[in-house]
Specification:
Layout (H helix, E strand, L loop, with lengths): L1 E4 L2 E4 L14 H11 L5 H17 L5 H12 L5 H8 L4 H8 L12
Antiparallel strand pairs: 1-2
GO cellular component, one term: cytoplasm
Subcellular location: Cytoplasm
Pfam families: DsrC
Length: 112
């Protein structure tokens, strides 16, 4: 499978996750988000940047609990940070946030 974007073909697996996270761009994120029916806000982009920065440092997708902690620290959501993550990405952290951020599908993960 693949995403056709700006005269480029970007390989995806059968679930739509990028095969090579290095092929990701902000334009790819916008394209995937539009397919998911998500209009990316500053908070979406903050989460996406956090996911990408973690990947750049560790070469794996960040666990949702760290993203929830990030939301709390960055935006002060406290106990509501978990719920807010799912307001931003209603079909789930792995299904939407990881895909939009250009991650490979995580093998195992915590939903927070």
């Amino acid at each position: 499978m693949a995403i056709e974007f700006n005269d480029t073909t970007i390989a995806t697996d059968e679930e739509g996750y990028l095969v090579d996270p290095e092929a990701w761009t902000s334009g790819v994120a916008e394209h995937i988000a539009a397919e998911e029916g998500i209009d990316l806000t500053d908070e979406h982009w903050a989460v996406i940047r956090f996911i990408r920065e973690y990947y750049d440092e560790h070469q794996i997708a960040v666990d949702a609990r760290f993203v929830i902690k990030f939301l709390d620290e960055e935006f002060g959501y406290g106990d509501k940070a978990h719920n807010h993550l799912f307001e931003l990405f209603p079909y789930g952290y792995v299904k939407q946030a990881c895909r939009i951020a250009g991650m490979r599908r995580p093998r195992a993960w915590s939903t927070g």
